[in-house]
């Protein structure tokens, strides 16, 4: 009975206070973390703290109501504990989170593209076992290979571009190497396939990315490839990297990649067409839509960028962590 009354109170509050859920999401968003393969998100601050902040904003909520709303929004409050993210925490980690959130909000107010970009883990192409289950007639499980050897079609390297504002995604499914040129070409393809229609008045683009991988902040080819893209589009490309060891905060992980992984659980990735189809058919109750396409270009590994070429990049590094926060403008 008590649970029913609490549910009734929650529905009444959210109906009367239409901005409550949005304001709570804004409070939680910069500090969310969790497993990239799960849509569940964790928060690192207590419900009491969130309730106090909401009450200061003019809402009338209790910590119990905040906890209930967070559960509805797929958040889970976790106890404080030590955890290894694979790298030593930067002293400016939280400051960088706030910097990224502030910049994203500014771009959204100006109706400029805000993109979260990253590469998904590589997967074998073939009739191999894929974790998870699917509905089938009793006693007729799908038969797959006993050993997951790399087959004739090899592996795929999906690279994703997630439009934070519009909740839309693009995935370039690569068949060779996950290089900086491949990553930037995925962003180029997003613009040609989706971006130019969504943002006809775009003057600049904001990319949020991890610190490592093909889009790492130390990767020279990433910067020179972005320079080429800025020249082609005639737009300033802003980049902000999440600190080392914090890739799980990147929005594309929770808002797109996790749902792709859920959608193809239990489905063998038998061929390229199947992979592209499963990605394109990934949706959520919040309206996520994704387009995907096979990128058959063979990208060369180990390309070296000489100092002379790197020095030609028209880059401006911001005062706060210029290694993580910079913009690349078209060359005159």
Give the helix/strand layout.
Blueprint lengths: L1 H15 L3 H9 L12 E3 L3 H10 L6 H10 L2 E3 L15 H17 L4 E6 L3 E2 L30 E9 L4 E7 L5 H19 L5 E6 L10 H14 L2 E6 L9 H13 L8 H9 L8 E7 L11 H5 L3 E3 L7 E4 L4
Parallel strand pairs: 1-2, 3-7, 6-9, 7-8
Antiparallel strand pairs: 3-5, 4-5, 5-6, 8-11, 10-11
Helix pairs in contact: 3-4, 6-7
Task: Tell me what the structure shows.
- By secondary structure, this protein is α/β, with parallel strands linked by helices.
- It has two domains: 2-77, no CATH class; 93-328, Nucleotidyltransferase, domain 5, CATH 3.30.420.10.
- It contains ten helices and eleven strands.
- It has helices spanning 2-16, 20-28, 47-56, 63-72, 93-109, 180-198, 220-233, 251-263, 272-280, 307-311, and strands at residues 41-43, 75-77, 114-119, 123-124, 155-163, 168-174, 204-209, 236-241, 289-295, 315-317, 325-328.
- The strands form two sheets. Strands 3, 4, 5, 6, 7, 8, 9, 10 and 11 form a nine-stranded mixed β-sheet that branches.
- α6 (180-198) packs parallel to α7.
């Amino acid at each position: 009975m008590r649970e029913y009354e609490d549910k009734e109170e929650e529905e009444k509050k959210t109906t009367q206070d239409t901005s409550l859920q949005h304001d709570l999401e804004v409070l939680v968003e910069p500090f969310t973390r969790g497993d990239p393969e799960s849509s569940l998100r964790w928060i690192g601050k207590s419900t009491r703290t969130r309730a106090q902040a909401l009450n200061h904003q003019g809402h009338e909520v209790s910590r119990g109501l905040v906890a209930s709303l967070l559960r509805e929004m797929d958040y889970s409050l976790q106890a404080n504990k030590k955890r290894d993210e694979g790298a030593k925490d930067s002293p400016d980690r939280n400051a960088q989170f706030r910097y990224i959130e502030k910049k994203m909000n500014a771009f959204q107010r100006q109706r400029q593209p805000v993109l979260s970009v990253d590469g998904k883990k590589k997967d074998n192409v073939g009739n191999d076992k894929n974790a998870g289950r699917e509905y089938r007639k009793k006693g007729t499980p799908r038969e797959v290979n006993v050993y997951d050897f790399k087959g004739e079609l090899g592996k795929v390297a999906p690279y994703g571009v997630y439009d934070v504002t519009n909740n839309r995604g693009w995935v370039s499914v690569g068949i060779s190497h996950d290089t900086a040129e491949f990553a930037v070409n995925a962003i180029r393809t997003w613009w040609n396939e989706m971006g130019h229609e969504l943002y006809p008045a775009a003057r600049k683009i904001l990319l949020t990315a991890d610190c490592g991988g093909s889009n790492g902040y130390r990767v020279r080819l990433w910067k020179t490839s972005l320079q080429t893209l800025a020249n082609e589009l005639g737009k300033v490309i802003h980049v902000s990297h999440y600190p080392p060891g914090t890739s799980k905060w990147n929005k594309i992980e929770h808002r797109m990649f996790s749902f792709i992984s859920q959608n193809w659980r239990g489905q063998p990735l038998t061929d390229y067409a199947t992979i592209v189809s499963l990605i394109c058919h990934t949706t959520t109750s919040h309206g996520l839509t994704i387009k995907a396409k096979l990128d058959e270009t063979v990208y060369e590994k180990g390309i070296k960028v000489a100092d002379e070429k790197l020095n030609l990049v028209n880059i401006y590094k911001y005062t706060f962590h210029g290694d993580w926060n910079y913009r690349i403008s078209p060359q005159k």
